[in-house]
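TA notes, week 10

Several of you asked for a full example with nothing omitted. So below is the full record: structure tokens for the whole chain, then the designed sequence directly under it. When grading your own attempts, check the secondary structure regions first.
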């Protein structure tokens, strides 16, 4: 792609949401090919889309921009984005005890291999450091060679994480709250009866 000398990065705005959502869905589709067991049900994609909508809807009402998502653009054309997932408290302030995580990095095919991903990652690091978060981490699915190369080139590789599914997780047991309350009531009634007899 010509014109990358004019590459700029800024915080995402409301007008960028539709494009970012499209790219995010494209990324999830690629992840599904790599890890079908994780993404087959669609639950992981649904959760991330809900987080994306909430992230845009909540801050944009006051700040008119979404600082945790940065977009790369040339002139008026978006060519990529990075989603830096920063844990926040109920007041919307960053949780300084938590590590930020890179949720998504996406660059359009025509602009890849031009350092766009590297510049987005650098900008995300600067933003995270500016709000006081001490650490940042990222997870790249096995087979996602582009993301692995990006993180390995930018950061000193300190850990490789391996995972295997041995069996289906056990189903969560539903608690019978009425039964529990009834037992507590009976125990309290019995204790009260014993005390009244003793007196």
């Amino acid at each position: 792609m010509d014109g990358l000398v004019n590459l700029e990065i800024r915080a995402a705005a409301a007008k960028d949401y539709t494009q970012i959502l499209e790219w995010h869905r494209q990324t999830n589709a690629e992840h599904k090919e790599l890890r079908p067991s994780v993404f087959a049900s669609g639950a992981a994609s649904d959760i991330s889309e809900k987080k994306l909508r909430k992230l845009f809807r909540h801050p944009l009402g006051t700040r008119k921009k979404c600082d945790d998502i940065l977009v790369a653009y040339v002139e008026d054309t978006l060519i990529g984005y990075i989603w830096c997932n920063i844990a926040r408290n109920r007041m919307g302030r960053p949780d300084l005890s938590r590590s930020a995580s890179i949720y998504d990095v996406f660059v359009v095919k025509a602009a890849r291999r031009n350092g766009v991903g590297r510049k987005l990652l650098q900008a995300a690091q600067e933003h995270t450091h500016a709000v006081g978060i001490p650490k940042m981490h990222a997870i790249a699915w096995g087979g996602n060679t582009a993301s692995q190369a990006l993180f390995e080139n930018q950061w000193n590789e300190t850990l490789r994480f391996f995972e295997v599914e041995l069996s289906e997780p056990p189903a969560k047991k539903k608690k019978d709250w009425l039964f529990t309350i009834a037992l507590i009531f009976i125990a309290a009634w019995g204790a009260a009866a014993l005390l009244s007899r003793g007196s």
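The two ends are 90 Å apart (CA to CA). Use that as a sanity check on your answer.
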